[in-house]
Each structure stands twice: as structure tokens, then as C-alpha cells.
């Protein structure tokens, strides 16, 4: 890997996130790292929706793919999983040194965010962001409490006791999500994304996404996960329950 690693931003999205697309596109365009391409995976049912990205000024090497839901997709998580896997294979085939996973409603905390994460020289490193809404909002990142913390199903009690102190240092953590995380080729080339409801499911509104299983697999393979606590990303999220309801109505 050279001094100027080749990085691919990967962002699964859909029309549900159009409310913040203009602000997000501008924020991504302000990133100062130069050896950076973008892959946007649009899982909106209508193929024509991909045209919306033409009006924004991204990087010269910006690719947009349409990845619609299949009849075999159990729910939106499995459509998003295919987006994750398509981006992973794309990065492997095109010789990227890193994937930078940025969700389409998560904003870089600073324009030189990529350079900051690269300086740590870690296989998996990113920034925190808040999930949930209003009084239920809390950071996604948690401290490592014990070797088996993340595999317990009493997630709410386990996680709440593990909320991390943001003191400006680099911390090893148990979960970083896929909101804003830099993943090295040594990791994404060997660990595929997956979803397995036989391994981890709480109820219909608290099921596990691919990011959960990705972090489980990192732990299983002894790969540490780090969070730079100097910055927290803005997360312009809406209710996931609303997205689920929309999806049900579209079926």
C-alpha cells in the first residue's frame, strides 16, 4: 500500500433519504482527500431514481448502480446486504486499498476526515454518530466490556452499560456500525457481509443488519475495531419504523 492509498466511498441509499441528499452530496464533495472514488448503490424500486444523482457535483470517478429489491429478499435488510456485497466485490476487483463506508444520512465531521482516519493505520477505524431519535437517541459506539459482550442477546442492557466516554482519544470499541468507517483491504477482501436471523434476532423492529454481523465477524477473527473520539458525525436520520412501513406498503 502506497503513501496515497486508493479509497472507495460506498453508500447504499434509496429515495427514503432524498430529504438530505443535497446537503450530503455537498458535504462529501468537500472532503479534501484526493485519491477517492464514490460508489452509490440505489435500492429504490424505480430505476429512474438514479437520475437524481446527476445534478450533484461529486468526484469525477463517481459510479451509481441500481440495486432493486428482489422477490427473494426477505426484507430491506437483504437488499441492503446485496448493496454491501456488490460494493465489496467492486472494491476487490478494482484494487482499492480501503472502503470508506458512509451512510447517506451521515455527514463527515470535518473536511479532512479521511486523512485523520488514515493516520491511525488501523484495519477498521471510524467516527461515532448517534442513532435513534429524540429521547431514544444515543451513540452507536460502545466500549469493549468483555470477550463475549457483543454476542449476548440482552443487547439493550449490555449496550447501555457500555456507552463510551468521548475524551478525544482513539479507543478500541465493540461496534462501529457502517455510518462512517474506514475498512482496509486486508479485511474487506476476506470478510463478506452477511445477515443471519438464525444467529441474531430480537423482534421485527429490532432485527440485526449487516453491520451487526460484520462486527461480530471482526471479533470472531480477532480484528480490533477503533473509534476516533475527537469527532462525532452528524446523523440526519428519520424513523426506521417509517421506512419499514413504507416498504410493507410497496410490497
Can you tag this structure with a few keywords?
globular; alpha/beta; 251 residues; 7 helices; 11-stranded mixed β-sheet; 11 strands; 26% helix
Number of strands: 11
**How much beta, percentage-wise?**
15-25%
Give the count of helical stretches.
7
| pLDDT < 50 runs, ≥5 residues | 143-161, 243-251
Rg calc: 17 Å
Q: Tell me about the largest β-sheet.
A: 11 strands, mixed
Helix content: 25-40%
Mean pLDDT comes to 83
Secondary structure category: alpha/beta
Overview in brief:
The protein is of the alpha/beta class. The protein has 7 helices and 11 strands. Helices cover 26% and strands 24% of the residues.
How would you characterize this protein structure?
This protein is α/β, with parallel strands linked by helices. It has helices at residues 21-29, 76-93, 113-119, 155-160, 185-188, 210-220, 240-250; strands at residues 7-13, 36-42, 62-66, 98-102, 106-107, 124-131, 138-139, 142-143, 170-175, 180-184, 225-235. Strands 1, 2, 3, 4, 5, 6, 7, 8, 9, 10 and 11 form an eleven-stranded mixed beta sheet that branches. β1 (7-13), α1 and β2 form a beta-alpha-beta unit.
Amino acid at each position: 500500500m502506497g503513501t496515497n492509498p486508493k479509497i472507495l466511498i460506498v453508500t447504499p441509499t434509496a429515495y427514503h433519504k432524498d430529504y438530505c441528499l443535497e446537503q450530503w452530496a455537498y458535504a462529501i464533495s468537500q472532503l479534501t482527500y484526493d485519491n477517492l472514488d464514490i460508489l452509490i448503490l440505489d435500492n429504490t424500486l424505480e430505476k429512474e431514481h438514479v437520475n437524481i444523482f446527476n445534478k450533484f457535483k461529486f468526484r469525477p470517478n463517481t459510479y451509481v448502480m441500481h440495486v432493486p429489491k428482489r422477490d427473494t429478499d426477505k426484507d430491506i435488510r437483504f437488499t441492503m446486504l446485496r448493496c454491501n456485497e456488490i460494493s465489496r466485490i467492486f472494491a476487490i476487483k478494482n484494487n482499492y486499498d480501503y472502503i470508506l463506508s458512509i451512510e447517506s444520512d451521515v455527514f463527515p465531521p470535518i473536511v479532512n476526515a479521511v486523512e485523520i482516519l488514515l493516520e491511525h493505520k488501523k484495519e477498521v477505524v471510524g467516527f461515532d454518530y448517534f442513532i435513534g431519535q429524540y429521547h431514544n437517541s444515543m451513540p452507536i459506539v460502545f466500549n469493549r466490556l468483555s470477550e463475549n459482550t457483543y454476542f449476548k442477546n440482552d443487547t439493550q442492557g449490555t449496550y447501555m452499560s457500555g456507552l463510551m466516554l468521548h475524551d478525544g482519544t482513539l479507543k478500541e470499541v465493540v461496534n462501529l456500525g457502517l455510518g462512517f468507517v474506514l475498512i482496509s483491504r486486508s479485511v474487506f477482501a476476506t470478510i463478506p457481509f452477511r445477515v443471519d436471523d438464525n444467529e441474531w434476532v430480537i423482534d421485527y423492529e429490532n432485527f440485526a443488519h449487516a453491520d451487526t454481523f460484520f462486527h461480530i465477524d471482526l471479533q470472531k477473527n480477532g480484528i480490533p475495531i477503533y473509534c476516533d473520539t475527537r469527532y462525532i458525525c452528524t446523523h440526519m436520520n428519520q424513523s426506521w419504523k417509517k421506512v419499514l412501513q413504507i416498504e410493507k406498503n410497496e410490497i
